[in-house]
Write a structure and sequence with these properties.
Layout lengths: L5 H34 L1 H8 L2 H27 L3 H28 L1 H7 L7 H13 L1 H16 L4 H24 L4 H26 L14 H33 L3 H37 L3 H34 L8 H14 L3 H16 L4 H21 L5 H5 L1 H27 L1
Protein name: MATE family efflux transporter
Subcellular location: Cell membrane
Membrane topology: Multi-pass membrane protein
């Protein structure tokens, strides 16, 4: 990505990233659709409301491995292949260690976490069972995240997409078999998700073994180096914290929504799923920019970094307008994917959410652009600060309005968070670009 038109490179790389992220979201989305259509509103409320908690757990691992891959991308751009393989090996150590610790810790803390989120006794058993199975499968989740991140660091965003498409299809099939045919309930959704993720991870591994000799690790690559680990953690942990801090804010909001009852939980969950699908474009642009900036930073092409960020900003603004129109005018009909059209109260909740937040999508998209640009440049602290600003804004809104105002007041937490997150990101990006220009 160090030569050629930045706009064309970013679009070509982004489209497979977008489709890959879209199929990755299918796991929880399909679970919610099958649960809502075949098991009812309560099952949709149980599974759908775990989205923020899933984002916290999966987001940490995804952010961690994406941060590790930045070092891989920089070494690849600088043509330091031995060093690159060493970072891959150290990333494997760290990814496995984090996954095991999280599996044990979250399994033990499963019920206490759910009680803090104000789940009622009626749906507590279903939510607890679903999340328990997801926690047990975190090792296969991190395996796919790490392997696909390494491929993207080398500029290959298509192969992970193909494997996700296969596993997403398997997930749909297993959801129907486990729930409709075998009558397993919400546990069937969780088993389907873990099995599908394991298949995508296995496909990634086999593909790397056969097609990418540059990633074939040798014994000396696994020689432990504290300095290398420190560099990886310096990028991985802030990126993971950025995801997790954002997720903690959404968990706080979800806890506030849970107080309003199952109808609001179901409507809010369905709206969130639809918004996440449209927001996948923003996520794909962010991940693309991280790789693009990482490679060009490694090659010393700061001029291309600036040009790539500028054209990406225009594309994000264009998609924001499309998303605003879709959510404002068609959000109600899209919610029918999750629930029957006769559930008018649930549909009304989703419409109220969309009409409250739609105007703020340009700010949401810009977060991914500037956050991932700074991370691709090797700066992890300020992007993490953006997450802290986001968390603080959500928390303040929830404390002020939850239980004191209507549901619309809780919905305002998202726009407030998106605007607050940009407060440290944009000025720092401008500062870094001016500093780099002075060096040149």
């Amino acid at each position: 990505m160090t030569t050629g038109s930045p706009a064309k490179l970013i679009i070509r790389f982004m489209i497979p990233m977008f489709l890959g992220n879209l199929f990755q979201q299918f796991y929880n989305v399909v679970d919610s659709i099958v649960a809502g259509q075949f098991l009812g509103v309560q099952a949709l409320a149980a599974i759908g409301s775990t989205g923020s908690l899933m984002f916290f757990v999966i987001g940490w691992l995804n952010g961690l491995t994406s941060g590790f891959a930045i070092m891989v991308a920089q070494c690849f751009g600088a043509k330091k292949e031995d060093r690159m393989r060493h970072y891959v090996a150290m990333s494997v150590y760290l990814s496995v260690a984090f996954a095991l610790v999280m599996t044990i810790g979250l399994t033990l803390a499963n019920e206490p976490i759910l009680r803090l989120m104000n789940y009622s006794e009626e749906i507590m058993p279903e939510v607890k069972a679903y999340m328990g199975i997801i926690y047990a499968g975190l090792l296969v989740t991190v395996a796919y995240d790490a392997l696909s991140a390494f491929l993207r660091a080398l500029g290959d965003s298509r192969s992970p997409l193909y494997f996700l498409m296969i596993s997403a299809g398997i997930n749909v099939f297993l959801d129907i078999v486990f729930i409709v045919v075998m009558g397993m309930g919400v546990e069937g959704c969780a088993y389907a998700t873990v099995i599908a993720q394991a298949i995508s991870a296995f496909c990634c591994f086999i593909y790397i073994v056969k097609k990418y000799p540059i990633l074939h690790l040798r014994k000396e690559d696994f020689r432990y180096s504290w300095n290398s680990v420190k560099k990886l953690l310096g990028l991985g942990i802030p990126m993971a914290l950025q995801f997790s801090i954002t997720a903690i804010g959404t968990i706080i909001v979800q806890g506030a929504v849970n107080v309003y009852g199952e109808t609001y939980m179901a409507g809010f969950s369905a709206a969130g799923k639809l918004q996440n699908i449209l927001g996948t474009v923003f996520v794909a642009f962010g991940a693309t920019v991280a790789t693009y900036v990482g490679q060009n930073r490694g090659a010393g092409r700061i001029d291309r970094v600036r040009e790539g960020v500028r054209c990406t900003q225009y594309m994000i603004l264009a998609w924001s307008v499309i998303a605003m129109i879709l959510m404002f005018f068609f959000g109600k009909y899209m919610t029918c994917i999750f629930v029957n059209s006769s559930e008018t109260d649930v549909l009304a909740v989703s419409v109220e959410y969309f009409h409250t937040v739609f105007w703020c999508y340009p700010f949401l998209g810009s977060i991914f652009l500037y956050r991932n640009t700074l991370q691709g440049m090797g700066y992890g602290l300020v992007p993490m600060m953006g997450g802290i600003f986001e968390l603080a804004a959500r928390t303040i809104i929830v404390l002020l309005v939850a239980g004191h105002t209507s549901f619309r007041g809780v919905c305002l937490a998202d726009p407030a968070a998106w605007i607050a997150a940009l407060i440290p990101l944009v000025p720092y990006y401008i500062y870094i670009m001016r500093k780099q220009k002075q060096k040149i």
